[in-house]
Amino acid sequence: MKRRTLLAGLGAGGLSPGFGFSRARGAPGDQGATLDGRGTAADRERVGDRSTGTLLAGTQYATPVVTVDGPRDGPTVVVVGGLHGDERVGYRTAERVAAGDVAAGRLVVVPRANRPAIEANTREGVGGDLNRQFTPGEAPATELARAVWRVVAEADPDAVVDLHRSTGIYGVHRGSVGQAIFPTVTGEATAYAADAAAYANETEVPWYMPVHEYRRANRLDGSAPLLAHKVAADLGVAGYIVETTNYLVALDTQVDWEFAVAEHLLRAHGLVRPDDGTEADGAGASGEGNGTGGSGGAGE
């Protein structure tokens, strides 16, 4: 898909176009301007444009929405972090993803989706578990869930990545889902999830921690009230829940691992970063070779 027009017309309950919206970089034609201290406007031709809006501005839920447009057309990928406020790796990784530039495509990031829960350092916020408010085929159950969904849907994404943390390891600790990537049944998600797991295991997870290797977990078919399930059922595009464990892993390392997975998924869908060597469409997904299926559901 081509790069989309910036989210517009969300109005009440969404991204307020006139309130809390700012351009984080110089406008086209400002040839002598600096861009956040990172160069002149000539650099814009290489890295594109960045803007920040506010979700539910003026409310207790107010939180940034970052949009990064590359100078060349490409896919749109939405990344969400912080649906659960006590999962620091999720929102810290999302912020790191949002900080990068884009050479081709559009990146839309809601780094801290559940601000009240994050501030309280609790899984649930106002209205309960935010990631249980996205029933497929229905309007989301709470004001915040509706606003998050509006950002996702109106971005017209090619893929959606939802970042989380677990206290155990999938297939090792009963009921735990850490070190797992849960793809939707839609698009190329299954193959790309397996490929991302293999990539993170090769580049991030130490050889002496084999139990911490990522796995492609069971697929999400749109049958549960989770954000990724709703993406599959209502949008019909690829979606992912990425779960990284905090079991014997420091927070900074969790972020490094989850960032590697997220970035690989972005590139698999064709989003290009300025430092990428090529603009190949997809990341050479290797099928389901690293996957395991049917061993429990995505618990986040």
From TrEMBL:
Its cofactor is Zn(2+). The keyword Hydrolase applies. It holds the Pfam family AstE_AspA_cat. Residues 284-300 have a biased composition (Gly residues). GO terms for molecular function: hydrolase activity; metal ion binding. Residues 21-48, 273-300 are annotated as: Disordered. InterPro entries: AstE_AspA_cat, N-alpha-Ac-DABA_deacetylase. SUPFAM superfamilies: Zn-dependent exopeptidases (SSF53187). Coiled coil: none annotated. It comes from the Archaea. Keywords: Hydrolase, Metal-binding, Zinc. Residues 73-224 form the Succinylglutamate desuccinylase/Aspartoacylase catalytic domain. Transmembrane segments: none annotated. This is Succinylglutamate desuccinylase/aspartoacylase family protein. The lineage of its organism: Archaea, Methanobacteriati, Methanobacteriota, Stenosarchaea group, Halobacteria.
